[in-house]
User: Fold Glycerol-3-phosphate dehydrogenase [NAD(P)+] from Robertmurraya kyonggiensis.
Amino acid sequence: MERKEKITVVGAGSWGTALALVLADNGHDVRLWGHNPKQIEEINQLHTNKKYLPGVELPNNIVGYNTLKDALNEVETCILAVPTKAIREVLNDMANVRQEPLTIVHVSKGIEPDTLLRISEMIEDEMPEHLLQDVVVLSGPSHAEEVSMRHITTVTVSSKNIEAAEKVQDLFINSYFRVYTNPDIIGVEIGGALKNIIALAAGITDGLGYGDNAKAALITRGLAEIARLGTKMGASPLTFSGLTGIGDLIVTCTSVHSRNWRAGNLLGKGQKLEEVLENMGMVVEGVRTTKAAYQLAEKYQVKMPITTALHNVLFQHANPKDEVDALMTRVKTHEMEDLANVLSSEQ
Ligand SMILES: NC(=O)C1=CN([C@@H]2O[C@H](COP(=O)(O)OP(=O)(O)OC[C@H]3O[C@@H](n4cnc5c(N)ncnc54)[C@H](OP(=O)(O)O)[C@@H]3O)[C@@H](O)[C@H]2O)C=CC1
Ligand SMILES: O=C(CO)COP(=O)(O)O
Assistant:
């Protein structure tokens, strides 16, 4: 019989709440911490979180907490489910109320602009060493709306410590939520973060009225530039053909649940970025990640034409249609650059 645990989910948005449900289904005592007292009252009294997961009923073994100290008391594992922008602030608050080491499972998909740190690196940077047991990432094609309806979902967990990843695999795995492990933490985090850029771009092309051919082109050429950067950063190229690479690209570029796709769609239809973000009401990670990936491309001297085009649209007021035209009229090239180099050296 598996050990049932007290587990704290930090962040009561869509993804934190959906993951709390999976853990509750597995019999764990789940504490769901959020910074909004009214929302916590709703979770405890009505067993709903209507803003983030409308129509979903939460079981009794999910208890809402508004105080981090109480939420983290006597807990060994915490799931960190806040937007990338809020991570440092929340970790700082956690460090102030913790004395014992904690395993942090992060589920956010982003890169920090300017420092260019992946989220596991941000956690190591911000959390004092004596308070950090292990850092694990959970990522993959998984919209909260579907997970909360117990629709079949597959994800991957990764950590520098394989045993920690396997423990998290055991906490989450069940008949509708299948969890794999992958030792390549760089590839897992880069794939999960950068697919949001391509999802924004896919939303834009849909909003402009382009068809499925354009979407397929974006997904495959998007994957090529993500893998080009990721491998330079030390990731295994194989990871990009897995759940956290192509898998997450497919779901985010093709699903109406995706906030990144929806934001891109509105941009393609002519709305201004500020207006789109204001009306979304939930995090659109791809915007900040585009800034970070653009900086990473410069740092590692990697060509990322789709990321650059999106950067121009988001931050330089470029016209989306002009950027698509510019992408299509670049100098002709090989599809597989490495393969072309190998073949020409054999001649
Ligand atoms: N939704 C999904 O399907 C998936 C999301 N993810 C990733 O999970 C991460 C979280 O996303 P998601 O849950 O969807 O986002 P949401 O926008 O749905 O929720 C974000 C939550 O974080 C809270 N929050 C924001 N800032 C702070 C802060 N400074 N301190 C404390 N809490 C804060 C929000 O509170 P408030 O309501 O007060 O704003 C809200 O409860 C993102 O990185 C996302 O990419 C990954 C896989 C799937
Ligand atoms: O990461 C996700 C699905 O795997 C969620 O994507 P969005 O943030 O675009 O909704």
Q: What stands out?
A: The pocket of NDP (ligand 1) is lined by residues 11-16, 34-36, 52, 81-84, 86, 89-90, 107-110, 142-144, 282-283, 285 (CB under 6 Å). Strands lie at 6-10, 29-33, 62-65, 77-80, 102-106, 132-139, 153-159, 177-181. The chain has a mean pLDDT of 96.
